[in-house]
Design goal:
Elements (H helix, E strand, L loop, with lengths): L1 H9 L15 E6 L2 E6 L15 H16 L5 H14 L2 H27 L3 H29 L9 H8 L8 H17 L2 H31 L18 H7 L20
Antiparallel strand pairs: 1-2
Length: 270
């Protein structure tokens, strides 16, 4: 995951160029490989100073061009791996140099960031807080998806309509708009099919769903036995806990809490 993050950072134009506001007075301070922009114009929204790159990212950014030239067919992830190997073999004196550069820029950034925070209104602080919460939620979902994949969670099968689309999608290499139009046409074709014509696709989907449900039960039991309860307590689990949950509770593993059903507006029968 760190390698993927590094790959995005290495190829991000925000590491190379500052964000300029038209009509504003900007002062640019450059140190090493990092460029920051600060705006001090009365009546304008303060611009958050950019956090400096740490020692490793600073080093990797500096050798990216040479790595790409030496390995033109390498993907961003592969370039990141090569940079990581070079960083591990780098002598301590060179690493210390990059770390000292980072500490100097960080000290400047801390001062600028404190000034930036003092200029924010309560509404702006609340907006920043909400944005941070949204980023954290996205990260949690991404980490949970990665965890479930690593734990071998069964993949939910396609329904009948998606099977029809896979079978009847002849064109490849389309643009985003062309692909969108093709999928729209497939939706129209599916709605025009009779129940008898849809039946083969739906039957296959139902058979795969039964297999998926059985695999999910077995997977949940394995998670309980290996104490990976957090993997099956999430909202995206479609099935209720299997009888193994009660056995796990006796063995010291907490059982899965049952999810509450939505409250119905109708009156329950006595």
């Amino acid at each position: 995951m760190q390698l993927n993050t590094l790959a995005r950072l290495l190829y991000s134009p925000r590491l190379l160029l500052s964000t300029w506001q038209p009509g504003s007075l900007a002062s640019v301070q450059c140190s090493g490989l990092h460029i920051t922009t600060s705006l001090n114009v009365a009546g304008t929204t303060p611009v958050k100073p950019k956090r400096p790159m740490n020692a490793y990212i600073r080093y990797a950014q500096g050798i990216r061009s040479s790595l790409v030239s030496a390995n033109p067919k390498a993907s961003p992830t592969e370039i990141s791996k090569l940079a990581a190997v070079k960083w591990q073999s780098l002598d301590q004196a060179s690493k210390t140099k990059y770390e000292e550069e980072f500490k100097r820029e960080q000290a400047v950034w801390l001062q600028k960031n404190a000034k930036y925070l003092s200029q924010l209104t309560d509404a702006q602080k609340e907006e920043i807080k909400l944005e941070r919460q949204q980023r954290n939620e996205v990260k949690i979902k991404r980490d949970q998806k990665r965890l479930l994949k690593e734990l071998g969670r069964p993949k939910r099968p396609m329904n009948g309509y998606l099977r029809f689309c896979i079978q009847n999608k002849p064109a490849v290499g389309l643009s985003k708009e062309e692909n969108k139009l093709q999928m729209k046409n497939l939706g129209v074709q599916w709605r025009r099919l009779t129940d008898a014509e849809k039946e083969p696709f739906n039957k296959q989907a139902e058979a795969d769903m039964k297999r998926y449900q059985e695999e999910m039960k077995q997977w949940e039991d394995r998670m309980l036995s290996s104490e990976n309860v957090e993997a099956i307590r999430k909202k995206n689990v479609l099935l209720p806990p299997s009888p193994a949950s009660s056995m796990a509770k006796k063995g010291g593993i907490p059982a899965i809490e049952k999810q509450k059903k939505p409250t119905s507006t109708t009156t329950a029968r006595p």
